[in-house]
């Protein structure tokens, strides 16, 4: 389901949840729409470890941890199978149980690393190991370009950007901002 197809109030709720959780997903069931996040690796491993002890009640744990909307006070009031359908989606999208899902996500993220924005982050992290991804994401354009210029001096490279064609950085990776901005517009993060 596309974002623009959601009712306005649900879009507002999703926008609020995106401030805390980068990746959220929606599933539509007979009980309505559920917005959820994926399991972290740690959470997934804990569920796998607890499954022999808890059995099917481990589904309830996944549901309670990952469903962000709506608040469900009593899962018993949901239609039969709703919790299972939602939890199966959470586990599938989390990607830890299926090698194909994991490899698909890895390939997708490898392509993202070729984008200009990702290449700039790599250059900054290489030049300034004390910076974190979060701190870089909080830079405004003036700070970002200052750090990039400084990184060029530290690493002895020059980043060139041509609107018409891709240019290379130190590693030979192309940076094409026009294409990157179009691509990022299609794939919101």
Structure description:
- The chain is mainly α and 189 residues long.
- The chain has 2 domains: 3-106, rbstp2171 (2-Layer Sandwich), CATH 3.30.2220; 113-186, no CATH class.
- 55% of the residues lie in helices and 10% in strands.
- It is built from 9 helices and 5 strands; from the N terminus they run H-E-E-H-H-E-H-H-H-H-H-E-E-H.
- It has helices at residues 8-18, 41-54, 57-66, 82-94, 99-112, 116-127, 133-137, 141-155, 177-186, and strands at residues 24-29, 32-37, 67-69, 167-168, 174-175.
- A 3-stranded antiparallel beta sheet has the order 1-2-3, sandwiched between helices.
- A hairpin with a 5-residue loop joins strand 4 (167-168) and strand 5 (174-175).
- The two termini are 17 Å apart.
- The model is unreliable at 164-177 and 184-189 (pLDDT under 50).
């Amino acid at each position: 389901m596309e974002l623009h197809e959601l009712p306005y109030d649900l879009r507002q709720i999703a926008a609020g949840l995106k401030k805390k959780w980068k990746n959220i997903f929606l599933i539509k069931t007979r009980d309505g729409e559920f917005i959820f996040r994926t399991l972290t690796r740690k959470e997934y491993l804990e569920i796998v470890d607890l499954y022999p002890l808890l059995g099917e009640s481990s589904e309830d744990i996944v549901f309670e941890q990952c469903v962000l909307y709506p608040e469900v006070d009593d899962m018993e009031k949901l239609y039969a199978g709703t919790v299972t359908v939602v939890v199966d989606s959470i586990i599938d999208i989390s990607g830890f149980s299926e090698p194909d899902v994991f490899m698909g996500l890895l390939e997708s993220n490898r392509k993202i690393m070729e984008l200009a924005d990702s290449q700039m982050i790599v250059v900054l992290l290489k030049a300034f190991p004390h910076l974190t991804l979060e701190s870089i994401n909080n830079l405004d354009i003036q700070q970002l370009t200052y750090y990039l210029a400084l990184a060029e001096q530290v690493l002895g490279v020059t980043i060139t950007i041509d609107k018409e064609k891709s240019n290379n950085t130190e590693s030979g990776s192309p940076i094409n901002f026009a294409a990157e901005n179009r691509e990022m517009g299609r794939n919101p993060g």
